[in-house]
Amino acid sequence: MALSRLHLLLNKPPPLPFLAPSSFVSPLSSSFRVSSRRPRPTPRFSFARRLLCSKSDPPTQSDPRWDEPAPSIVGDLLDYLNESWTQFHATAEAKRQLIEAGFHLLNENDEWDLRPGGRYFFTRNMSCLVAFVVGERYSIGSGFHVIAAHTDSPCLKLKPRSASSKSGFLMVNVQTYGGGLWHTWFDRDLSVAGRVILKDGHGSFSHKLVKVRRPLLRVPTLAIHLDRTVNTEGFKPNLETQLLPLIATKIEDAEMKSEDKKIAPSSSKSAHHSLLLQVLCEELSCDVSDIMGMELNVCDTQPSCLGGGNNEFIFSGRLDNLASSYCALRALIDTCRLPGDLANEQAIRMVALFDNEEVGSNSMQGAGAPTMFQAMRRIVDCLAQERFREGSFERALRSSFLVSADMAHGLHPNFPDKYEEHHRPALQKGVVIKHNANQRYATSSLTAFLFKEVANVHNLPVQEFVVRNDMGCGSTIGPILASGVGIRTVDCGIPQLSMHSVREICGKEDIDIAYKHFMAFFQSFSDIDKKLSVDF
């Protein structure tokens, strides 16, 4: 059922996509068109091919004319999801795509040399990324047009000392990260991915990303014969004692391999099963003695794919919030591909992808850190050079606008009573603007109007969401960033089902609608914003 990359069937690279207001067509078309981009290197993992559908429409050549629709990015999103098992892999893949698109990699420790028309990005902790392009007509005091999302998702993470054993099994100690639906992690084919700190032969150290593609771990459920009330009283596992994955049956000391015996009980390596270390070494082509540290997530091995009778859904882990991250990333890349795309732009277009949103954002690589605002100040100072004027940075912030993009709650057909009667976002009907009077979302009437006006100009659908008064409301990075220095913010998201499950669902059409909406934001917000006067 898996299809190899469709663009490899093409004999020559197609023209690059171009987006203009008249290029937007009805986003609810039933056809699915795969983006025919320039061929990329052969995928490193044979298993990570797109799982599209049993039969698909033939690939179409995109024509960058004003009267042609933008190509679908759904196939490319599936590739991105299958690459991005962890926040580190998501950032590394975004980095690869930005470099391929001609963006210049910056280092936060170096001096920056920026120019109007330039495209730049930097990473922090390889789990946070900020990319930006400078309009060719940039002037001091011009604002930033930003789309912000996050790279992390609820998951299980290995504890610093993960090795344990129970009843003849080798178990892996894990801790819960974020507010996951942990019962969905039972009876899944699981593995590990993340980063490992390695030493080399010259006394220095490096970090390498690792992904064990084969099923390695399993959290088995208890048979119903031994838990007769589970269907009536609910499945309520103890997260400390009953959520431990097993990796193997216990290996007796007499059967241990000779290389395992070289690990002293007091060594840091003894904190993890020697079998797990062997698997990591095979993936990294290193010795156990080279491993100095690790940060590993437990991941579901089932690939992301299309599903449903009409192949209209995306079934995947980590849709929250890699779907938003990828739509934002592609929108930024595709709105500055062609000569002239930035010729009339006065603002700075930016995408910021943060880590640790699922646990409050209070980290060096989270939205609670001043990463984005420090970058904004450096950009303004660098572009101003000797022409620095009073309040340049502050004026730029007052002219700026932030789109906080995080997945939204789509209407669940089995639980309609959980939704406010007049605010029930549907799948396949477009981006959802989130409202909350208690500022759990940063949306205001003004920011909602401006973001909806972008959609109206380009004939794109928009939905709205308000949580019921008798239920609690989640939050996003929007209020954190909005209150940091006072930037106008709208909270929005792609509607989905099964949020925070190991396997989530969203609509295929909504991905392309979000992509078009974000592209329209970058291309037309400067003109729309000029038409609204408030504090004058």
TrEMBL record:
The family database entries (SUPFAM superfamilies) matched by this protein are listed as:
Aminopeptidase/glucanase lid domain, Zn-dependent exopeptidases
Gene3D superfamilies the record matches: Aminopeptidase i, Domain 2, Zn peptidases
> What does the record give as the reaction this protein catalyses?
Release of an N-terminal aspartate or glutamate from a peptide, with a preference for aspartate
User: One Gene Ontology cellular component annotation?
Assistant: cytoplasm
Pfam families from the UniProt entry: Peptidase_M18 (PF02127)
Q: Which UniProt keywords apply?
A: Aminopeptidase, Hydrolase, Metal-binding, Metalloprotease, Protease, Zinc
Q: Which GO terms describe its biological process?
A: proteolysis
Protein name, per record: aspartyl aminopeptidase
The scientific name of the source species is Musa troglodytarum (fe'i banana)
